[in-house]
């Protein structure tokens, strides 16, 4: 899943994981859990998360790589929030080439306009009280997405695995389009 903060990656990833019986690997949730548990990784990640910055590539790759391999060997996975930079995507691709059974078959880009993203993030902040959903952090996270993550769209487009979905619709409509797309690509049973 590739989308700006608040676009619905988590919602759609949860639905896909449940539908296909695969693991949902959410980098943000993993990092927030590490911070809450005050682990060594959490301590390193905390300041980046509080500012709305991306966690350094090496740190994120360390915590994600093993989970992806384990999930791939168990039948598949849906990634939510990783990779977020071109360097992460290229490193993940090199690692996947080295490992048997790990592959990225489709990248789903949930496209949502900036005003709608802000509205959703404000609502989430009110509902969940996430510390990374303050007004200043919301704006910063959207800027970081535009500068560091949007270049991935062209990278995955050039690999012919990018599929853009209108994420401004109701969640059930978005899910239906994703499932139809995955089924048309023959990925309905072996998403990875």
Radius of gyration: 16 Å
- Catalogue the unreliable spans: none
Q: Helical segment tally?
A: 9
Total count of strands:
4
Helical content band: 55-70%
Oligomeric composition of the shown chains: single chain
Helical/strand content category: mainly alpha
Strand content: 5-15%
Q: Per the principal axes of the C-alpha atoms, what is the gross shape?
A: globular
Total separate domains: 1
Strand order in the sheet with the most strands:
1-2
Query: What is the correct CATH architecture?
Result: 3-Layer(aba) Sandwich
Mean pLDDT: 89
Q: Please give the alpha-carbon distance between the first and last residues.
A: 11 Å
Q: Kindly report the CATH topology.
A: Rossmann fold
Biggest pleated-sheet summary: 2 strands, parallel
CATH superfamily: P-loop containing nucleotide triphosphate hydrolases
The CATH class designation is Alpha Beta
Description:
The protein has 192 residues and is mainly alpha-helical. It has one domain: 3-Layer(aba) Sandwich (Rossmann fold), CATH 3.40.50.300. The longest helix is centred in the middle third of the chain and has 17 residues.
Quick recap of the structure?
With about 190 residues, the protein is mainly α. Helix content is about 60%, strand content about 10%.
């Amino acid at each position: 899943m590739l989308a700006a903060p608040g676009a619905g990656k988590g919602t759609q990833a949860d639905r896909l994981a449940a539908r296909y019986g695969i693991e949902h690997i959410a980098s943000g949730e993993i990092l927030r859990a590490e911070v809450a548990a005050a682990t060594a990784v959490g301590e390193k990640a905390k300041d980046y998360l509080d500012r709305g910055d991306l966690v350094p590539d090496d740190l994120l790759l360390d915590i994600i790589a093993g989970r992806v391999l384990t999930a791939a060997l168990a039948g598949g996975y849906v990634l939510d929030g990783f990779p977020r930079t071109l360097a992460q995507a290229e490193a993940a691709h090199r690692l996947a080439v080295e490992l048997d059974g790990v592959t990225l078959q489709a990248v789903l880009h949930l496209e949502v306009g900036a005003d709608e993203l802000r509205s959703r993030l404000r609502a989430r902040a009110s509902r969940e009280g996430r510390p990374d959903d303050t007004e200043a952090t919301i704006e910063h996270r959207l800027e970081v997405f535009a500068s560091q993550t949007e270049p991935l769209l062209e990278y995955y487009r050039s690999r012919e695995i990018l599929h853009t979905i209108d994420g401004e619709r109701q969640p059930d409509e978005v899910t239906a389009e994703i499932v139809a797309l995955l089924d048309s690509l023959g990925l309905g049973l072996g998403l990875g």
